[in-house]
Amino acid sequence: MSLTKKTKVGLPLGPGLGFVLQPESWDEMEMLQKFMLYYNGFESRPVFDNVEEMLKWSGLYGLTRRTLEEELIDAGLNTQTISELVTVITRINYGQSTSISGLAGAVSLAGSESGLWSIKGGNWQLAAGLLKTANATLHLQEGIESISDAGDYYVLKSNKGHEYNCTVTVVATPLDEVNITFIPPISIPPRKMQHTHTTFVRGLLDPKFFGLSSVSDIPELIGTMELPDIPFSCISVRKKHGEHDMTYKIFSRVKLEDALLDQMFSTREETIRIDWPAYPHYQAPEDFAPIILDGRHLYYVNTFESAASAMETGAVAAENVARLIISRLPLGVTYMFWKPFVGE
Asked: Which of 135, 159, 266, 289 has the CB geometry, 3.0–4.6 Å to 303, for a possible disulfide?
């Protein structure tokens, strides 16, 4: 598995649609340094049984109580800079405006910086490698319909008619749009998911749609402001097949109809549409579901996504749940790997 470095590109604004250079972003280095505390050795990190204490320990909890816009205004940015530049980044990375929480906003801005890395051949290899290392048994194309507490274990029933008895059950998917019955019922706060409509198009953008005269004037990444007449969040070039033959990826909040795509593209050979609940719809102050859903051994990883959603936050949340399970099971030999957290 090898890494490739990603490059920074300029961010344009959208139909009307003058293109601008990307500015230096809000300084999120302090946030990143606090987040890096979760990567310290086990001996210096507690195990957390709720997200609030996990964030307070690193000093990040306050950023979930206020919006990104509030944080940026206090940092000295004016509303025009926020509207015309910062919003472009949050729309690309989270499909939302600067009304998202300060922590989600900081993660979004960090994702716009140079020095980012990806796995050559696709980041899916990270999950595949972890599964292989864990020697996990996968049940692909099989969904869980119910989780029942049977006393000393849980009974998981699938849509294939199978039953699985598990001493510990970890829910590692957002519960907001899945239909899983819990017996007895669990209680989590309501949370909306932000749907991202991803449209892949092989063809060629029409420069006239953007008020330009030549295809060569269109940058490889197009970002947009938070304006009602702009139908997409961003457009990026995924692959160049030839001078007049490219594959583009478009993010939008609603489905892009063929009529609109025909206006945006001078040629369009193939179109693939995917609608997915990509991340929570952030709205400060954030409310967090419990990590331990029933007081026993039913755990929820994705509650941490209400703070921020990224590969790194998912990994940090999952590792904490794994350590929490170890700390709560009667396996004394493993206790050397954990340290309980005592809050204020």
From this structure: 289
pLDDT tens readout for residues 23-63: 344 456 788 899 999 999 998 999 999 999 999 999 999 99
The CATH-assigned architecture of domain 1-21+45-113+196-330 is Alpha-Beta Complex (3.90)
Local confidence band at 332 (pLDDT 50, 70, 90 cut-offs):
very low
Domain ranges across the chain? 1-21+45-113+196-330
| The 3-state secondary structure of the chain, one letter per residue | CCEEECCCCCCEEECCEEECCCCCCCCCHHHHHHHHHHHCCHHHCCECCCHHHHHHHHCCHHHHCCEHHHHHHHCCCCHHHHHHHHHHHHHHHHCCCCCCEHHHHHHHHHCCCCCCEEECCCCHHHHHHHHHHHCCCCCCCCCEEEEEECCCCEEEEECCCCEEEECCEEECCCCCCCCCEEECCCCCCCCCEEEEEEEEEEEEECHHHHCCCCHHHCCCEEECCCCCCCCCCEEEEEEEEECCEEEEEEEECCCCCHHHHHHHEEEEEEEEEEEEEEEECCCCCCCCCCCECCCCCEEECHHHHHCCCCHHHHHHHHHHHHHHHHHHCCCHHHHHHCCECCCC
